[in-house]
Amino acid sequence: MAKKEKTVAASRVRMHELVMPNDTNPLGNLMGGKLMQWMDICAAISAQRHCNRNVVTVAVDSVEFVSAVALGEVVIIEGEVTRTFRSSMEIAMRVWAENLRTGSKRLCTTSFYSFVAVDADGKPVPVCDIIPETDMEKVRYEQAEKRRTQRLEQSRQIREMAKIFQIGERPEED
Ligand SMILES: CC(C)(COP(=O)(O)OP(=O)(O)OC[C@H]1O[C@@H](n2cnc3c(N)ncnc32)[C@H](O)[C@@H]1OP(=O)(O)O)[C@@H](O)C(=O)NCCC(=O)NCCS
Known about the structure:
Number of domains: 1
Helix content: 25-40%
Bound molecules: coenzyme A
Low-confidence stretches: none
CATH class: Alpha Beta
Radius of gyration: 18 Å
Order of helices and strands: EEHEEEEEH
Distance between the termini: 49 Å
CATH topology: Thiol Ester Dehydrase, Chain A
Number of strands: 7
Structural class: alpha+beta
Number of helices: 2
Strand content: 25-35%
């Protein structure tokens, strides 16, 4: 694929989801795993908008749920590519809850998702560069390099720990 550049704005995605009974825990609040699934879909659309290839999730940075989302509220999920490397892309995610009765919106979580563009065999392929335009996009672009270094180091440490606990062996039978 010819190497070309695209703007951050071109990768921006905004999704809305209404929290239904099937999405909630026994307290009537949105389940964290369901929210992360929606975030994953939003991030995947953003990554694909940028690279126009198939993509896979390679890593998700920490996700802290700072505000519960209640049944009947609307979840607003925004994603945009902050920086690209060779085949990988970092996508910044922000999530708000909207109360439709009051019209108020509150921030629920933020995170960074990492995706890799792949070919038909699932092998990484290069993606085009991103152009940060606004001051905030430029800050996020600069900081992305540091986040990537930390992410890869953390991944290395987790793999080391997995060896100690022999994770990856066959699970024990019930
Ligand atoms: C992601 C995948 C394609 C990478 O394949 P690979 O053969 O390990 O390729 P590489 O080691 O060259 O890594 C490819 C890119 O991923 C990046 N990467 C690898 N591990 C990473 C991590 N933990 N966090 C962020 N980026 C990571 C590499 O830095 C590299 O980036 P670059 O090309 O921009 O420099 C492969 O591991 C895979 O298919 N994993 C499963 C993905 C999946 O199924 N996701 C769904 C959820 S289970």
